[in-house]
Amino acid sequence: MAKDLLDKHAILQRDKQSYAIVPHTPGGIVTPDELQRIVDVAKKYDIDTLKFTSAQRIAIVGLNEDDIDAAWLDLDMKPAAAIGKCVRSIKVCPGTNFCKRAQQDAVSLGLLIDEKYHGMELPSKFKIAVSGCMNSCSEPAVKDIGIMGTPRGFILMAGGNAGIRPRLGDVIAEGLNEDEVLVLVEKIINIYKGYAKRYRLGRLIDDMGLENFKKELGID
Ligand code: SF4
Fold first, then answer.
1. Does the predicted TM-score (pTM) go above 0.90?
2. Is 99 in the pocket of ligand 1 (CB under 6 A)?
3. Which of 92, 100, 103, 131 to mutate to test the pocket of ligand 1 (most atoms within 8 A of CB)?
């Protein structure tokens, strides 16, 4: 029976014949050249649909199995961690780079986090979001780690997720600068790596209790 081709970073589609591939576009930002290559690949392999995903990516949908390797070569882009138990997307709002409401630089922080953690294997899928203000356009409250800009630094939340058992993230710390956020993200991921169950981070926090989880992070 046909299935996802993990070694080719190709996701089997509903027709059980064709595949989607998803190039990595950190923060949902692409250069015109990268965007042009995606379009060129779609045209070369007779793709009639490109899907903008909720993870700020462009999925090339409907590839024949025989074309997957050549399509990746033509793209000359890294694959996104679009499936599997790992750090998936780091969703980033425009922040102070572009948005007039922003109070913090979501793009720089999000790209740093993406560089360090995208694709890292973990007990379950793991999503991160960074927003430049409390309007939360990247939806940090429903991400495993959500980072939200405020006039007084960042708020960090943990344990949020959407899906079949939705859960809002718990506020872990407030008034953080970028370095403090990065230290906490590292500590949270290290704790989660040791979780024996294959559930999302929110379950670990529920299992441990929020106060114990914060104590593990060195937060009273
Ligand atoms: S969360 Fe704030 S900074 Fe980010 S896009 Fe929305 S309004 Fe702009």
1. yes
2. yes
3. 131
pLDDT of residue 160: 98
112 inside domain: yes
Report residue 175 CA to chain centroid gap.
23
Q: Is 1 inside a domain boundary? A: no
Assess whether 114 and 184 both reside in one domain: yes
Q: Look at residue 54 in the predicted model and tell me its pLDDT.
A: 92
Listed residue (27, 34, 66, 73) closest to 50, CA to CA? 34
* Spacing, Cα 43 to ligand 1 middle (Å): 34
Separation of CA 137 and ligand 1 centre (Å): 5
Atom of ligand 1 nearest to the CA of 103: 3
Alpha carbons within 13 angstroms on the beta-carbon side of residue 104 total 25
DSSP per residue over 96-110, as a string?
HHH-TT-SS-HHHHH
| 71 and 99 both lie in a single domain | no
Residue 102 pLDDT: 97
The pLDDT value given to residue 69: 97
Interacting residues of 111 by C-beta distance below 8 A, sequence separation 6+: 26, 27, 90, 92
Out of 56, 101, 138, mutate this one to test ligand 1's pocket (max ligand atoms within 8 Å of CB): namely: 101
Q: How many domains does the chain have?
A: 2
Kindly state if the Cβ of 94 falls inside 6 Å of ligand 1.
Answer: yes
Where residue 63 sits, what CATH number does that domain have?
A: 3.30.70.3340
Report the chain (220 residues): mean pLDDT per 10 consecutive residues. 89 95 96 97 95 95 97 97 91 95 98 97 97 98 98 98 94 98 98 93 97 94
